[in-house]
Specification:
By secondary structure, this protein is an alpha+beta fold. About 20% of the residues lie in helices and about 35% in strands.
């Protein structure tokens, strides 16, 4: 299992901390064997829980010029037409994916193109499924423009637990469908805004896999 670079330092510090705690319990407090066993087991469970959160599995991406791929693992919680007021200032199809702490939290590009717009917004930390989290929470907004000029907006949104958004792109960057562009630590959400003529291929409650699940099909394909 590969560990994402965002978790390596934290996992190293946590490992040393838990070793220290168990050493102090064993040789400082000198508890009963039962209490010591509980401490050791609890430490292992905690470490494995954090470890699985930072897993970064290898995936095979099937590039397709008509497809919009899920930018994250999680569950579809919103599919609706809505006004997008930061970049497009018009109506778009919004698909939102909620990422629980047990999901892989790597964020992947839904299509191939270049980053036409990118902006980081500091903000609040409402629960990720709150209706206003898309506009009030800490977030990033990225617009990817396909080679034929179709623009798709992707928004990373921090949740009540996720207070660290990472991104690895900038305006003008080339980006390839399914490739990693960011990471959000712990529970969070990703919104995708599509043209109104796109055909949505998922439904409310669909479990998604980043870079593999096809969210929608564009009316006009672009060249990969």
């Amino acid at each position: 299992m590969r560990i994402h670079k965002e978790g390596r330092k934290l996992l190293s510090i946590l490992f040393l901390f838990l070793v220290g705690v168990n050493f102090l319990v064993a040789y400082g407090i000198r508890p009963s064997e039962h209490v010591l066993n509980i401490t050791i087991i609890a430490s292992i469970i905690l470490y494995l829980a954090i470890l699985q959160f930072f897993r970064n599995p290898h995936i095979v991406v099937s590039n397709n010029g008509k497809h919009i791929l899920a930018p994250a693992d999680g569950k579809v919680v919103v599919i609706e037409k809505t006004m997008e007021n930061e970049f497009f200032n018009d109506e778009r199809i919004q698909i939102s994916i909620f990422m629980s702490p047990t999901n892989v939290h790597v964020n992947r590009a839904p299509l191939t193109g270049f980053v036409k717009y990118f902006k980081y917004h500091p903000g609040k930390y409402r629960v990720a499924w709150h209706p206003k989290s898309s506009t009030d929470n800490e977030r990033t907004t990225m617009v990817v423009s396909s080679p034929t000029g179709i623009d798709v907006l992707v928004r990373q949104i921090a949740g009540a637990m996720a207070r660290r958004i990472k991104w690895y792109v900038a305006e003008g960057s080339e980006i390839e469908q399914g490739h990693e562009y960011g990471f959000i630590k712990f529970g969070s959400r990703v919104d995708v805004f599509l043209p109104l003529d796109a055909t949505v291929l998922v439904h409310h409650g669909t479990k998604t896999k980043g870079g593999r699940t096809v969210l929608a099909e564009l009316a006009t394909p672009f060249v990969v």
